[in-house]
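The protein record quoted in full:

***
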Amino acid sequence: MLRKLFTLVLCLATTAIAVQAQTQTPPDNEIWYTTTDGKTVNISGGHDNEVLDNSYRNGVGAIKFKNDVTTVCCEKCYSLKTIIIPNGVTEIGGGAFSGCTNLVSITIPDTVTNIGEESFQGCNLSSIIINVVVGNPSYVLNTLGVDNITAYAGEFSSTDGRCLVADGVLCHVLPKDLTTFVIPDGMTNIQGYAFSHCKSLVSVTIPESITSIDDFAFIGCCGLTNITIPQSVTSIGYGAFVGCSSLASIDIPDSVTVIGEFAFADCSSLASITIPEGVTHVGDSAFFDCSGLKVLTCKAPIPPRVLPGFLGFADLCIDAETQIYVPKKSVKAYKNNYIWGRYAKSIKPIK
């Protein structure tokens, strides 16, 4: 299905949304660019790749290297306005364009297979055009420095430009000024990091078409207070809600069978949680550092498989006031279970 994040055209608000990839591309051993002052800038074309010429003529800069360009870096090139990266480049390193505050647009070829963290941090990008998506762009986009982007454009953008979708997958949602969000009908999967660090997000509506919530899907959504998981969801991934510190309660639907490791870790306001009857596995530290947890209800008649730290390392989440409610006929089974039995004093029958 999705394998990599390929062609990107990043642009500022001052650039028209309809901007597309340039009709001309530089030779594999050249980088073309423009600057705000009409002067040359230093851009790396790979480790020990000797620069043969760097000149600025007729409003365009061109750097010619001895060998083909394999990676690009131009950190803190304050005057850099546009840049066209040649075909053949496979990597844009971490922080490659960090601090390029006047960068208007960048054309990235489909040969790129890796984009490092914070590649465009400080570039004040406010729109992004994505014309080819394969893979998991969510993690990449969240480490590029896209906090100020307000709209997507291109083949994979939603109608309102707020999110990126592909093949029924909600890939990424832009965090800026987002308080509520309704996931479009027809989506089947919330991809990992899709809502990563949407700090102002308060509530999310998930349609019945969603079947899985992937790893770290809502990581760092510290303002999230309300979310309803529909009966269609069968799995909650690793760290799916980690750091959702305002989430006070959550009902996991009966359809869920697996709760991933660290799924609700660091949800410090989480006071109660209900594990449905069909859950067979609760990941290690699934509720780690849920310091406000007072009621844990597990409806499963057979104690779900858990590891010693499923409630947190060294039982950090259990105190004298915490109660664990299980089916009346299963109280003995839970108390005699190797792991659940560690909390025997807190286990009581469901009322």
In short: Residues 1-160 form one domain. Residues 1-23, 131-136 have pLDDT under 50 and may be disordered.
